[in-house]
Each structure stands twice: as C-alpha cells, then as structure tokens.
Specification:
The protein is α/β, with parallel strands linked by helices. It has 11 helices and 13 strands. The structure holds uridine 5'-triphosphate (UTP).
C-alpha cells in the first residue's frame, strides 16, 4: 500500500547560467534580479513557506553566493536600523531572517534542471517533495504550490502545474498529452520537451511548480542528456509515467517568467501597479509614454 506523507520539503533550483540575461548574470544570479525592492527568489521562498513548507533546499552554483547572503541574518544592519528608529524597514528585514532554515547544495556544472534536482536527493530522502523554479513567480491568494499539494493529497501521486501557451511558444516548454478528469485536472499520458508547433501533443506547457514522489530520483539517474545536451526533467517525468501516475493541474493564478526579458519587465510593472505608493505616478508616466 502506498503510504501517504504530507509534503514539507521543497527544492528550489537556482543554478542555471541565466544566459538570456547576460551580461548582468555574469556577476549576479538571475534569481536575484529585483522586482522593485525584493529579488525574484524572495517571492519563490515566500510561496513555499505560505504553502506550509518548512524545509527548503536551494540548488546553487558558481556565482550564486548572493542568494545565500540574501537569506542570511544581517545583525549589524539590523542594529543600525534599530538605532535609527527605522522600524518599518527593520520589520521587512526580519521577515527574511524569520524564513525557515534554508539549505544549499551546489550543482558543479549547469547540466540541466534534471541534474540540478538530483543534487537534492540526499536531503530529500524517501519522501514526496515540492519543486519551485527559482525564476518563476506565481501570484495567487492560494499559492500554486498549495494547490498542487491539494491534488497530491487526493491521488498520492506526482503533479505538475500547467498553463496554456501560445502555439508558437510550445518549443520553449515541456508539453503534455493528457486525459481530462476534471476541467482543470489531467492524467498525463506523455510529456515532450520543447516540441515543434507541428509535433506538440497539445498547447499545455509545464511551468515552474511540481510535486514529485521520490521515485523521480531513480528516473533522473537513468535519463540521458536530451535537448541542449542537458538532463531534462521532462524526460525523467516521461520515464516516471511508465510505473507511476502523474497529474497535471491548470493552477489558479498569474505566472511571471522573470527569466525572460519581457516577462521580467511585465513583472516589475504589474508589481509596481499593485503598490499604492507607486501606482499613481507610474500610471501617469505610462499614459504619457503610450499617449492614452
Ligand atoms: P532555465 O532554463 O530557465 O534557466 O531554468 P537558465 O538555463 O539559467 O536560463 P537561460 O536560458 O540560460 O537564460 C529554470 C530554473 O532551473 C535552474 C535555473 O537557475 C532556473 O531557476 N537551473 C537550470 C538549474 O538550477 N541548473 C541548470 O543546469 C539549469
């Protein structure tokens, strides 16, 4: 009998080279790009914590030390803010040091998302876990990871988040073929990494949130390098499907792909428009720019 376990561990892969953002990513992780005054990965950790995760492991690599520094405590800075009576700023800073302990493991070479995930195997052990990509923000009252956990608890099976993608963009995603069992829930039959629009089995692409049973690690180990000569998570999911059901869930919420230049700009504008201190002036600026 399959033992149902609750999910309390999450892996956040953040070791990619971020080539679409060169040259800035030469000395700065793309996961640390600011959305106004917080880095992208802050929102990702926030989502994990809001979903009930209390054990986080971030996969880092060369040039990614800024991520560890960001989540570390900053006693001197906190002391200075306290002396200056900058209480609001101090409170915001303390929110970061109050996150659960974050563990780090390095991926020595950026050999792909699948390889990055495999670095977390020892830490995760034999239990189901969540994966949140370090450059994808998903905004919703009920966090996307919590939505996937709810599906996991119904089926005790792996579940991945999906959204419709424009046909011309299917070549950037893992695309699923699935049977709808509810309007937003599919049992996956197959998944293909970066198909052409002509060969894509659907227009439903996997995005940056997943729940996996621990058997995914054996599948990752037996996965050969695929597209881009990288160990592709999509290919490992394809193997997992042989012996384990995998579900796909059309989550509620807005996804921001901050690893893409346009996606990054859209994220900043949307988040600034939600900020009461910035909204009015930004709207006036945008109106002037586009003459509406
Ligand atoms: P991406 O494919 O978007 O990241 O991976 P990338 O390769 O850094 O991007 P570009 O195309 O060169 O600009 C999604 C997530 O997986 C992590 C990335 O850091 C990102 O958060 N990743 C990717 C790894 O941890 N290791 C890898 O080898 C590849």
């Amino acid at each position: 009998m399959i033992k149902k376990q609750s999910i309390h561990k999450a892996v956040i892969p953040a070791a990619g080279l971020g080539t679409r953002f060169l040259p800035v990513t030469k000395s700065m992780p793309k996961e640390m790009l600011p959305i106004i005054d917080k880095p992208v990965i802050h929102y990702v950790v926030e989502e994990a914590v809001a979903s009930g995760i209390d054990d986080i492991i971030i996969i880092t690599g060369r040039g990614k030390r800024a991520i560890e520094d960001y989540f570390d405590a900053a006693p001197e800075l906190e002391m200075w803010l306290k002396d200056q009576h900058k209480d609001a700023t101090l409170k915001r800073l303390r929110e970061i040091s109050n996150f659960p302990t974050i563990h780090y493991v390095r991926q020595k070479e950026p050999n792909g998302l699948g390889d990055a995930l495999l670095r977390a195997e020892n830490h995760i052990g034999n239990e189901p876990f969540a994966v949140l990509l370090g450059d994808d923000i998903i905004s919703n009252a009920k966090p996307c990871t919590a939505q996937l956990m709810a599906v996991y608890s119904r089926f005790t099976s792996s579940v991945i988040s999906i959204e419709h993608v424009p046909r011309e963009k299917v070549c950037n995603y893992g695309i699923i073929k699935g049977n709808a069992i509810e309007p937003d829930l599919f049992r996956i039959e197959d998944i293909v990494e970066k198909p052409t629009p002509e060969t894509a089995p659907s227009d439903m692409g996997a995005v940056g949130r997943y729940i996996f049973v621990p058997e995914i690690f054996d599948c990752l180990k037996s996965t050969d390098p695929g597209v881009g000569n990288e160990i592709q998570l999509t290919d490992a999911i394809h193997h997992l499907l042989k012996d384990h059901p995998v579900y796909a869930y059309k989550f509620e919420g807005k996804r921001y792909d901050t690893g893409d230049k346009l996606g990054y700009i859209e994220t900043i504008i949307d988040f600034a428009l939600r900020d009461e201190n910035l909204k009015q002036e930004l709207m006036a600026f945008l109106r002037k720019k586009v003459h509406i």
